[in-house]
Amino acid sequence: MSKKRSATKLTSYIVYCIMLVIAIIQLVPLVWLVLISFKNNSEIQVGSIFSLPKEWLFSNYSSAWVQGQVGDNFVNSIIVGTVTVFFVLLLSSMMAYGLTRLRFKFSNVLMLILLAGVMVPIHATLVPLFLLLKNLGLLKTQLAIILPYITTSIPIGIFILSSFLRGLPKELEEAAFIDGYGIIRSFFQVIVPLLRPALASVGIFTFLHVWNELLMAATFIQKSSLRTLPLGLMNFSGEYSVEWGPLCAAMLISTIPLILIYIYFSEQMEKSFTAGSILK
Fold first, then answer.
1. Which CATH fold would you assign to the domain 68-279?
2. In sequence order, what are the residues at sequence separation of 6 or more whose Cβ sits closer than 8 angstroms to the Cβ of residue 139?
3. 237 by DSSP, 3-state: which?
4. Contacts of 147 (CB under 8 A, 6+ apart)
5. Predicted confidence band at 279 (pLDDT cuts at 50, 70, 90)?
6. In this structure, are residues 212 and 230 in contact, taking their beta carbons and an 8 Å threshold?
7. Residue 213 exposed, middle or buried by CB count within 10 Å (0-12, 13-18, 19+)
8. pTM over 0.85
């Protein structure tokens, strides 16, 4: 017994050490980004990477927010991300429910067709989508980027939610039907509350994708006032020089919502992973 306990403790220590190393590797760039955001170009290029600023330039943040138009880009990213997540969660949950619970002819074929969207590279759809959006007159609106984001995020949402739904007992819905619930009411009042952990995971993954995506935004956004944060960060690169301080300040501002969202929904994500493993 003592040998087993010592082996278990040794394994735990090794795992903790590995996790600590991974955490340090992930935190070091963030610390470096914070320090750089308070420096000027000369201090960044001459001084040490992790040295404290000689003068803490909080003006970098105001310059990034106002002159770099990070504020406007931030609002655009929030609008695009929120609308995309809402419709992805709504549509993918309803489609996953219909394909897993309401069995009908060719439902498996339809599921395969929808999931095939995960395997289609984004680069292959840029030109057809651009021409389609141009013909519809949507290139100078936020729908030009919201609609592609929704359609590309739905397949992975269906995959995650359908896997979670297969583990839920059908007796819950049967009891709801006995009580007089219809399909729509049982879905929203019985199934959706049980899907909260999986919905949180899909929502976070979708928001992260939308928040950091650059290629589609650069292709479809044809109006400077509609630029999202990744496009806005490109404005800090001048023809002959780059203002690294304001640029790093803008990058740090762009990471704050992601950190807050993960902290708020981390418990739901953990429940999703543990529930999925238990149901399997």
1. MetI-like fold (1.10.3720)
2. 130, 133, 220, 222
3. strand
4. 133, 138
5. very low
6. yes
7. buried
8. no
